[in-house]
Structures are given as C-alpha cells and as structure tokens.
UniProtKB/TrEMBL annotation:
Taxonomic lineage from the root: Bacteria, Bacillati, Actinomycetota, Actinomycetes, Kitasatosporales
Name this polypeptide is given: DUF2304 domain-containing protein
Top-level division of the source organism's lineage: Bacteria
Provenance organism: Streptomyces rimosus subsp. rimosus
Membrane-spanning ranges: 31-52
Swiss-Prot/TrEMBL keywords: Membrane, Transmembrane, Transmembrane helix
Length: 64
C-alpha cells in the first residue's frame, strides 16, 4: 500500500509540473487520468500491479 501511494503521489507531482510547464495541457491530462482509472478496473490491472511490484523489489535489492 505504501508503494502504490508513493507512486500515485510521484506521478501526480510529475503531472502537475508538466501542466504548469505547459508541456501537458489539461485535456490530455484528464484523458490520462481517466485512462488510468478505467484501466485499474480491467483484468490486466493485477498483472500491471505484479510487474510494478517486481520492479520495485528489484530496485530495492540493488546494493551499491
């Protein structure tokens, strides 16, 4: 849960920066939000979640 909240917060901040920098207009941003919202209710959502969790685990296991 903490990871998904962090990802949502990070993506939200990126989207606000892009909108304020005029790189992303409000219309396409709304379409992206709605696409993500409806994608979350499809059958592919668990696969995307597992993929993102495995990427986060891989990054977490990297030691320098």
């Amino acid at each position: 849960m903490a990871l998904s909240l962090s990802v949502v917060l990070l993506l939200g901040i990126i989207m606000v920066v892009l909108i304020r920098g005029k790189s992303l207009k409000a219309g396409p941003a709304l379409v992206a939000i709605l696409f993500g919202f409806f994608l979350a209710s499809t059958g592919i959502a668990p696969s995307i979640n597992r993929f993102l969790n495995s990427v986060a685990e891989t990054i977490n296991n990297i030691s320098f």
